[in-house]
Design brief:
The structure is a homodimer of 757-residue chains. Chain A has 757 residues and is of the alpha+beta class. The first copy, chain A, is 29% helix and 25% strand.
């Protein structure tokens, strides 16, 4: 058994004291001299043509320093990539949803800025809107983006094996339709930025982004300013869940207002702003068809998915791609067909949201699996074991699986939930439900889009500096990454100073999303630290006149094994390097991969170059109140194959938080629209779980030791919310025989369902 | 002639717009949430025993969050080095000057903190004080530091050649005594810091220091906290002139107050605080004896120097060392004797101040040279040419001179000042005076104490990042260093992003002092950038299938010479490195030297391991108002051997500023004491030059192209104030025959002198 000094330890987050004390500096805490406050005028109509914008009265208001419309912007459309660009910082011709950015004001305080918004006169020509993606696809529907036929932003057609033959070979064919609702990320910290743009376009922006380096690229593109001019700094960040990956119109607006006013400009979303102007989880409608043999073998599966994009793309095209990949890769199925449509509607735009298309796919597929098990009279766990993925297999849709602990997740979750006994002794209105999932455990899209750098430096004063581009968005990557480095150097993680998330002082990192930081940034840290470790050992070997393999490290010292007292300190080694060799003890690590292999065919949507896949099984136990239809989740088991738990305490934190978010999506969280307008943009009407709503969650960490992950680790961030909703819905069915096919499973739906039985 | 794209260009400071607009963030602009304000209780007596400190009333004042006395401190004495440690952040037993730190308060605002100071009751036992270093050396004088005999903190005895034989071989022996006064640095930005100290001793301090990395070491030592816990950040800095090198008691106090209160704590000096509590230029008394042959050859020289240390050491011992080295190295003299005493008095403590002991030495020596020239009836320039240092010589006191342009300085200054003609046609009350000097052009003390690191990084997005530990203290090093890097890469200096002066994100740098940044940090930048340049050329050579020597760089592209259109961009090369090779285009540079050679004998004070020496000649033209004794400097020529001018505009800025400061020291600046108390701690009574007092200054840049300097450059920061005062005093003598031997040359002294003629 390998010995680890720091990896695998339950170390509290290194930022915990700072955050608990309130001394941690978040973007909202940045106050600059002469700073102005920005407010944005948003479209009150879901779909309209902008005829005229008159800002003259607003400009005259005392305290207003700059008013911005599209005329002041480069009018370059942006999105996650230029291919999908469809959004302007301030719209020029049309407003496409209620909340679309029309104009903005920078003033000496927020009240003045708000007052100025009321003085801006916009003449709109109202256009018919469309809010249902199925309606939007029909010929004759209102056209939201001029060049986009049938409002279909992206369509995916994927087929592998022979779907017809597959279905023909099955003993049972099941078809059904499942739909999911919009969810808001609800990070506790709202979006905020403070920007300075000098007359020479030199930009400095403090911003709570999940991806500072990527944001720099996007700002460079959208503002047509050389990236060399842009400095992105991310202070402590209070949760993202995918909502803080994009270039936000507000960020570009602040920069342009700063340029126009010559002053720093800040914007900070209110909670309402957050609900009505940031991305949401894409609602989907998934029509599934499964073919199964009597023994449970799935011989064919097919999905037709309509994904509601809202008014703009953001991550939509990639989310649809993930929906396909995750649907198609879970379980060993030879014949698969996937048809997906990403459809514009006049509503708030979808974006990256924890799980990235997978929760929608998994809700549908795992509901279907339960329905199949029932029809075959099989235990749902046995059905899943029958079809479970195995390590070192390539799926029919060409996804390479290395480590895989799905079977262990299924069996250990079964054990921990007391599944067999509880199924036997089931009381009325109580039920157990299970769901599994597959997800990326280290980002994806492959080389060129999955990079993370790290620098490790040891100074002559014995200080150890780690620098990474990755942002800790609250999940604890600062702690995890320093643990890995500490483990390599056999030092206390507290002894490592850490710099993160600053485009000037860290190596580029794609960002914190895609459950990629532990895997990708971790790999870079591992590489950089080992480079320095080797330098240390080489120097020490010379000084101590011993072979490198006879040396061991502890507490910033290197000893000759067995020779008590013969040692040299890191500080002495660094001094020697500096003073005698005029070189520095610095190592660099750069993860970037995996290479996109021939398997991957972006036109046929087969293959997916992820460095590692993770698996999980959730088992929910629920109790239903038949009088109200209210669901209580009373027990929850979450078994996760995460390669290795670098810090089990933080892993459990991730799982518990994700399950809570998953329960919210399953039961209470529903961003509701009426004619394109969100009607519940507040925490009173939009219900996220509070601590007292969260059941006991038993986390099971299945350590499969991935061959490519740092210390064998894979990601955990997103996946833990993926199978939660279907596990709950399956448990509800187990309890009362009511099958919920459209989320959330509200008391109303359950009460109605109970009445129909 | 070598071609340079950026080096040698008159580029305005890259921070100029920020500073002129007022958007530059200085330490004083840092405001943190919950921040407290610190005020320090200082000793009202010049010398006393502290009997008791009662803070109970102050602690009870509403708004006071912490009160600190020595009891709350580790009581570790500090100084520039542990050898000379004699100062506590808060004194425990004695107060040794008016201003000594006794207690401190952190409160919600400055007024409350000030009010609390008045509530602290200190019982002092007054002790007899001593204010004159000559008196302080006498037996029976009050003892300031218990263990220090005769109040002599350091004594230097240096002799080379044979001083008695030397004098015996001379035709003329001249002896005289010269004295200089205290000068305040008067940087426009006063000392300020904002410190956070967490319960686990994690420290973050924003501070206007000239040496962040060295400060970290000093804080670590004085507070007994591991350096790994300390993060020093230096924002824009508004002038230092040596006053911001030390660990300030106030910095340690803020940290300890933060620890005690659990809140960030800020201190910002008022101008009065600045005058009464920060270091000053050491007053000296120099008794010189020179032996000269009739032809002007100096055959022997001797100095006995008493330097007034004030109450604590700070840089005193090293300043005395420099006084010796610079006195002894200027001119080719075989037989030298130097005797120096650094003597404690009950006054404000001396410290590093532009020129670091050299202005005092040069004032004495260059006055003496003029007196010798008169006695020999020689032109003062001819006398200096006769004895001038030459390139590639080792002086009698074992200082290695590489490049040396002293002769060029003398002849070109003579030319530019129209010396010959003006001497011929001299009108009454007008005079010309000359003085030369030698100084370090790149720090000193040798390996281990003269280090600077730099990192150069090129990213896949084409951004170029330079990171250096050095601080731009207003002199323009940010501009100079990026010019050097830009020149190596053949890019626009504006294309280079720069990070400086942060212990977490830059390689260690000894600091910005000793005229070392251009030479030392410049060498590191040169090395780091060339490393990356080679990586670029190697990659390009592979891609373009051309030899490296056939490639040329321009605007972030590499071309094959003569093959139009065959090129590859930096961005493509960095991408390729990242994506194909998983490596980063990073280079590191580390200057550290020179090695201390056998020449250097620290016990005999012979030798001095500086990487380069600089030389200069100043010629002042003055006009005296016989009615008032007022001196007008009407013309000024400053010829400087600086190796190479990386940016002539900024070099001229340095020279002009230094000459202004030199004129101030010569004529108006005099920090006056009465019984140990400064009586003119304000800009009304302490007169620095304003822009209208500064004469036309003609700068002559003598480019000797130093063999070791980056692009041949040497330092310019300090030296330009060194020969100013003697040039003026010599000009006064030339004008009216009055020899001023004690600075400053006030109207009173001149008026009195005129009356005696």
């Amino acid at each position: 058994m390998e010995q680890h000094s720091a990896v695998g330890k339950r170390i509290p987050q290194r930022d915990a004291v700072d955050k608990v004390k309130g001394s941690a500096i978040f973007t909202n805490d940045i106050k600059l001299k002469g700073m102005l406050y920005c407010k944005i005028l948003r479209s009150p109509l879901p779909h309209s043509r902008i005829i005229n914008i008159d800002v003259s009265k607003a400009e005259k208001l005392i305290g207003v320093k700059a008013v911005l419309t599209y005329k002041d912007t480069p009018q370059v459309k942006f999105s996650i990539s230029p291919t999908w660009a469809d959004k302007l910082p301030l719209e020029s011709e049309k407003a496409r949803y209620i909340g679309d950015e029309i104009a903005a004001v920078a003033a000496v305080d927020e009240d003045t800025a708000q007052e100025a918004l009321d003085l801006i006169q916009v003449d709109f020509e109202e256009l018919p809107g469309v809010y249902d993606p199925v309606e939007a696809m029909k010929p004759g529907a209102p056209v939201i983006h001029d060049s986009v036929e049938n409002n279909i932003s992206k369509a995916i057609h994927m087929e592998c094996g022979n779907i017809e033959e597959g279905f023909a070979s099955g003993d049972l064919i099941l078809e059904d339709t499942f739909s999911t609702q919009a969810q808001s990320h609800c990070s506790l910290e709202t979006h905020c930025c403070v920007a300075i743009c000098e007359p020479n376009d030199e930009i400095k922006i403090w911003v709570n982004t999940q991806a500072p380096h990527a944001l720099r690229q996007k700002l460079s593109y959208a503002l047509n300013i050389d990236a060399s001019k842009i400095h992105v700094i991310t202070p402590y960040l209070g949760g993202g869940f995918g909502s803080k990956i994009d270039l936000e119109p507000a960020q570009a607006i602040c920069i342009l207002l700063s340029k126009k006013s010559g002053r720093p400009v800040r914007i900070s979303n209110t909670r309402k702003d957050q609900f009505i102007s940031t991305r949401i989880r894409h609602p989907t409608i998934s029509e599934l068809k499964f073919g199964v043999k009597r023994d449970g073998t799935i011989v064919a599966k097919q999905a037709r998915v309509v994904m509601d994009n809202g008014a703009y793309n953001s991550h939509g095209p990639a989310v649809l791609l993930y929906n396909n990949v995750m649907f198609s890769s879970l379980y060993r199925v030879e014949n698969i067909k996937y048809e997906g449509y990403l459809v514009y509607t006049n509503k708030n735009w979808g974006g990256a949201c924890r799980g990235y298309g997978d929760p929608q796919a998994t809700f549908a597929q795992e509901s279907m699996m339960d329905m199949i098990a029932e029809r075959l009279n099989m235990d749902p766990i046995d059905l899943r074991l029958k079809n479970a993925n195995n390590p070192n297999e390539i799926t029919a849709n060409k996804v390479r699986i290395t480590s895989c602990g799905l079977r262990e997740c299924l069996t250990q979750a079964k054990e921990a939930s007391n599944w067999a006994e509880k199924k036997e002794t089931k009381s009325k209105y109580r039920g157990l439900g299970i769901a599994s999932m597959i997800y990326t455990g280290g980002g994806s899209i492959g080389s060129g889009f999955n990079y993370s750098g790290a620098t490790m430096q040891i100074n002559a004063d014995g200080t150890i500096h780690l620098s990474v581009g990755a942002v800790d968005i609250g999940q604890g990557s600062n702690t995890i990454l320093t643990q890995m480095a500490a483990d390599v150097l056999a030092v206390d993680p507290e002894a490592i100073r850490l710099t993160t998330a600053d485009t000037d002082t860290t190596l580029p990192c794609m960002g914190t999303f895609g459950s990629r930081v532990t895997f990708c940034a971790g790999s870079a840290v591992f590489q950089a630290t080992n480079e320095v470790k080797n330098m240390l050992l080489e120097e020490a070997s010379e000084i101590l006149e011993a072979n490198m393999e006879d040396l061991e490290m502890k507490d910033k010292e290197i000893f000759v094994k067995g020779s008590l007292g013969v040692s040299v300190t890191f500080s002495e080694l660094a001094s020697r390097a500096h003073y005698k060799r005029k070189k520095t003890l610095i190592g660099h690590g750069y993860y970037n991969g995996p290479e996109v292999s021939d398997d991957f065919d972006p036109t046929s949507y087969v293959g997916y170059p992820s460095p590692a896949m993770v698996f999980a099984t959730h088992i929910a136990e629920v109790e239903i109140d038949p009088g109200t239809g209210k669901v209580d989740v009373i027990n929850f088991v979450a078994a996760h194959d995460l390669g290795r738990a670098i810090n089990p305490l933080l892993v459990e934190g991730q799982i518990e938080g994700a399950v809570a978010q998953g329960i919210g999506w399953a039961l209470t969280e529903d961003l509701k629209f009426e004619n394109g307008k969100i009607v519940n943009p507040n925490f009173h009407d939009y219900k996220i779980l509070t601590i007292k709503d969260v059941p006991k969650i038993t986390s099971i960490l299945v350590e499969t030791i991935d061959p490519n992950g740092p210390f064998g680790a894979k990601g955990i961030g997103e996946c833990a919310m993926v199978p939660t909703a279907p596990a709950i819905v399956n448990a509800i069915y187990d309890a009362i025989g009511v099958r919920i096919k459209d989320l959330p499973a509200t008391p109303e739906k359950i009460f109605d369902g109970l009445k129909k039985i």
